[in-house]
Amino acid sequence: MKDFRSILLAFIGLILLAKPVSAQQDPQYTQYMFNGLAFNPAYAGSREAISAVLLLRKQWVQLEGSPSTGSFTIHGPSANERHGLGFSVVHDRLGITRQSFAGLSYAYRLPLASGVLSLGLRGGVTQFTNRYSDIVTINPDQQNPGVDVSTWLPRVGTGFYFNTKRFYIGFSAPNILAGRYSRYNNQFRNSIASEQRVHYFSTAGVVIPLSKNVDFKPSVVGKFVKNAPWELDLNATLLFRKVFWVGAGYRTRDAAVFLIEYMSLKGWRIGYSYDYTLTQLNQVNTGSHEILFGIDLGLAKAKIITPRYF
Questions:
Q1: Would strands 116-130 and 255-263 be described as parallel, antiparallel, or unpaired?
Q2: Which end of the chain has fewer surrounding CB within 10 Å, N or C?
Q3: Please, what sign has the CA dihedral across residues 24, 25, 27, 32?
Q4: pLDDT in tens, 154-182
Q5: Taking the complete model, does pTM exceed 0.85, yes or no?
Q6: CA distances to 3, 123, 144, 255 from 94, in Å
C-alpha cells in the first residue's frame, strides 16, 4: 500500500508540475536528472555518498554566440546522514555575456516514514561580464562601446527535495536575489547593462519496475521566469540491468532530446545527450551536445548494488 501511495503521489506531482512553469537566463541541462545539485541545493547528500559530476554542454552547434556551459558539483552527507554539504562551480557563455558562479550548498535531511525530506540553502557569488569589445558593428555610424564591463553579484538560492527509493519531487529557486548592474558611458550615467531575474525549477520523477532487469523512469522539470515563456522538459528513460540508461524526451518550444548513460557498479558513470532543435533555428545549427562524467565515492557494497535512481 505504501508503494502504491508513493507512486500515486509522484504521478500527482508530475501532473501538478506540468503547468506553465522559463526562458533561459540561467544555464539549462538535458541530463538534469543526473545533475540535481546544479539547480537545487536540497539535493546535497541525497546520493548517500560523496558524489561528483562534471558536465559540459554546447548548445546550437555552428550558431555563432550560442550558449556554452561547463559545471562541476560535488556533495555528500554527514556521518549520520542528517546534513548534506555541496560545492558548485559553473561557467556559462552566451554571446558577449559571461557568467562564472561558485557557491556552497547545505541541506537539512529529515527522515520520514516513507522517505527523506531535504530543505536546502545555497550561497555564493557570480562574476557577470559583458564583453562589449567583442561586438562587431557593420554600420559605420555605430561605434563599438569598446569597454568590457564586469561585476560581482551575491547569489542566494533555496529549495526542497523529497525522495524515496522509487520517486522524488522538488522545487527550487537557485538565485532569489534578482540583481542588476550598471555601466557608464558618455551619454547616460548608470544605464542598466544587465538584469538577472529569479528562476524557478520544479522537478519530479518515478521509477516503475517492468521486469527483473528493466525499470522505467518518467521525469519532468518545469522552468519559469517572470515575463518569459514557461518551459517543460518531459523525459522517459529505461534502465537495463541496473547499469545502462537509454531515454528520450521533449523540451517545449525547443527540442527533441535523446540520452544514454552507463552507470558502473564501482560507482563511476558517463552520459551523453543530444538535442535536435525543432524550431526554425535548426536551419542554422546542428543540435546541442552534452557530456556528463560522474563518480560516487564511499558507497557500501550493498548500496552500490542498489542503483542510484536519483
A1: unpaired
A2: N
A3: negative
A4: 899 999 999 998 899 999 999 888 665 54
A5: no
A6: 44, 23, 19, 18
- Grid coordinates of 3: 508503494
Report the amino acid identity of residue 300. A
Report the alpha-carbon distance of residue 46 to residue 122 in Å, rounded: 15
What's phi and psi for 38, nearest 5 deg? -60, -30
Distance CA 283, CA 40 (A): 34
3-class SS of residue 281:
helix
Residue with the three cell numbers 541541506: 107
Q: Grid coordinates standing for 233?
A: 522538459
Cell numbers given for 188: 547616460
Could you tell me if 203 and 219 are in contact, meaning their C-beta atoms sit under 8 angstroms apart? yes
DSSP annotation of 132 reads: G
CA neighbours closer than 13 Å in the CB half-sphere of residue 38: 26
Of 74, 40, 64, nearest to 162 by C-alpha is: 40
